[in-house]
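Q&A log
Question type: sequence-to-structure
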Amino acid sequence: MVTEMKFYNRESELILLNQLDKQSASSGIMTVLTGRRRVGKTVLALHHAQGKRFLYLFIAKKEEHLLCQEFLEEIRKVFVQVPIIGEIRNFKDIFALLLEIAKKENYSLIFDEFQEFFQINPSVYSDIQKLWDLNKYSIKLHIIFIGSVYSLMHKIFEEEKEPLFGRADRILNMKSFSIRTTRKILEDNDIYNSDNLFHFFVLTGYLPKYIDVFIKAKVKNLEDMLEVIFQSNSLFLNEGKNLLITEFGRDYLTYFSILELISLGKTARSEIESILKKDIGGYLQRLEVDYGVIARHRSIQAKPNTKYQKYKIVDNFLNFWFRFVYRYQTAVEIENFQYLKKIVKRDFSTYCGPMLEHFFQNLFKETNQFNEIGGYWEKDNKNEIDVVAINDLEKRIIIAETKLNKSKIRVNQLRERSKILIQTYPQYDLTYLSLGIEDIEKFLESVK
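Response status: OK
Response body:
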């Protein structure tokens, strides 16, 4: 049994970081690593830096002069002869020192939780911009900025009015593990089966940190996973608040109410507004564009400006958290974990229905055989189809229904619901599929 989570995947990111390292031998290179917490940004940066000359600096929430003292100690550990005159109390001088070192030595510099300077001293971003612009072509430095508050990192590097706009040579937004990678992890730990692969998808969204927690707890099945989630001092219980309150600020209660409703299946704006009794257009816009927490989905044939759009929470774990943890917060507070597990078991089959269609859509994407994949529905949600996968090059289309209990699928009804859809593809080779968890293994063979 493998008890420690080894480094998995991220091959394309590592290749790119190595290429940028080589470029830094002749000039300064700036890379930004973003992505939600627990996705493995720091692990990737440190793994990339192994065996190379690098300096890692974590930006903690403390007074600037104390942070500078801490940074100086770290600098002296890596660089023996440091040209320091007098006391350094501000980050501008620390950064200038690091650039001076980079004029003589080629190394990588990693700043973690870079967005924290907004709280410590926001003028740091202007200081960095000025020093970088003056020195970029006279230094040999690959600087990697890591940040996990999506909205702030977007603001720092991608808003035109901000000083560091346009300075980054690459911005990497890290995602969860793929189905294929997660399968390999489960196989390495002797717990792979189709049920576990799907339940890891539902509960973790394949976030590396959550997978690691389950692996270290030696889970064998869904029952074990729920035991890990619903126990005293569980990482998972306050995770939604820890991840999102910093993002949302004072308005977090309204955002949380919207997300709770989406997790309950209220996926249309009109549905949510009828319950909350308020206009939520601005909130939905910010949740999608500024925070990256939700995404809009339209029927596979619909025009971009269609009114018939649905919203879903991008992160599977957060969807689960809002549905089963935030919704029953009073039970969490009194640690009635038996009650919570009963609620999950009661509602889990219903909850997993949409998750299974989401899983198979992702699985079809990983085959790299289709240029368009999604769901289909008509006005008032009529004639819904779970999965439609189109290959325009080979002129073929797959139309599929997914169910936990596959025996309930009626292919004749699926054909009937697709009548309007297929009129757009008269010369296409049509395949109708009924898909359950037992079909996962067959499709995984095509993404090896």
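Response note: The mean pLDDT is 92.
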